[in-house]
Request: fold
Amino acid sequence: MKVVEFGAFVNFFGAKDGLVHVSQISQERVAKVSDVLKEGDKVKVKLMGFDDRGKTRLSMKVVDQTTGEDIAGSEQPGDASEGGEERSSGGRRERGPRRKREEAAE
Reply:
């Protein structure tokens, strides 16, 4: 793990690295990442998805750090697992493909 000002880069699934943003480290507000995490710490994370550039989004706050179990009710709003609608990064609902309009016959 490499600790940076805005979060921590965590190695997972062997060769993969991903960012745990400071907002995803704990249920409580974290003012300084280095107050909570140190380089070399082992933590449990959950893959939350991918950003617009294809980079992984990881979270520690949705995983019990002792057992590795998901913490009930900790899913983010709009997560598919919560039954919410998936949203793009702009906050808008994803729509299906456009339908062709029927042209009125004269």
Q: What stands out?
A: The chain has a mean pLDDT of 78. The first strand starts at residue 2 and ends at 4. The chain has one domain: 2-77. The chain is about 5% helix and 25% strand.
